[in-house]
Write a structure and sequence with these properties.
7 strands; alpha+beta; about 65% helix; 5-stranded antiparallel beta sheet; 2 helices; SH3 type barrels
């Protein structure tokens, strides 16, 4: 609120400075009408009447008369002579009232604009605050997920190393199994050879015993011839 009052004070000061910068412009005093003549005397013809508060630009002065340029809103200015005593540098109260009313309207519009801008700034501040809180929360979530992934990556590397060691152990075990299978097959083959040789020896011994027994039996038979 203090900032708003300070801005309003600056605007009023600028408006007053703008008003004082036009001090060279003169005005018709608070008479109802004065005559605008073709020359600097009462004998000259009146071409127009100027009402109180009419703004004029003084061009030259001569013996209590001033040649002026009448300032109009439509820029269709015209010139003539008026009595100098009917001119004043002070802005008439009617003109001041109109000017102040216009300035008041301008200030009101500016105040409305400033209030609207202040509301928009407040809304933007609230929105930015909400965005900041959300961004902070999202950052915390990302940090938490990062920590979890970091921990998970360590566990993954450890498991990968263990898996690699298990693969090496499994490969060694397979090699030992294949070696034992080969040795077992060799042992079985050797046993079959031994059994075959033993059977052949037994068979040969049985054959020799049979031949020996047969010969002895043939010698013991009586001869009938």
């Amino acid at each position: 609120m203090n900032r708003f009052c300070f801005i309003m004070s600056i605007i009023v000061g600028l408006c007053l400075m703008e008003q004082t910068s036009r001090a060279e412009t003169q005005y018709v005093t608070d008479f109802v009408k004065i005559g605008l003549r073709t020359g600097p005397s009462l004998e000259n013809r009146i071409t127009n009447f100027l009402i109180s508060g009419q703004s004029v630009e003084p061009l030259e002065s001569r013996e209590g008369w001033t040649r002026v340029r009448v300032l109009t809103e439509d820029k269709d200015d015209y010139e003539g002579w008026v009595l100098s005593r009917y001119l004043t540098k002070d802005v008439p109260w009617k003109n001041q009232a109109v000017s102040l009313r216009e300035q008041n309207n301008v200030l009101k519009e500016r105040a409305v604009g400033l209030e609207r801008a202040w509301k928009e700034a407040s809304q933007n501040e609230q929105r930015l605050k909400a965005d900041l809180e959300k961004a902070t929360h999202d950052l915390q979530e990302v940090q938490r997920e990062y920590d979890m992934l970091k921990k998970g990556s360590k566990d993954f590397l450890r498991l990968k190393q263990e898996q690699k060691a298990m693969q090496v152990s499994l490969k060694t075990l397979q090699e030992k199994t294949e070696m034992l299978a080969t040795e077992n097959e060799s042992l079985r083959s050797s046993q079959r050879t031994k059994w075959f040789a033993t059977g052949a020896v037994v068979l040969l011994c049985g054959l020799m015993i049979g031949l020996t027994v047969g010969r002895q039996q043939r010698k013991r038979k009586p001869s009938y011839y």
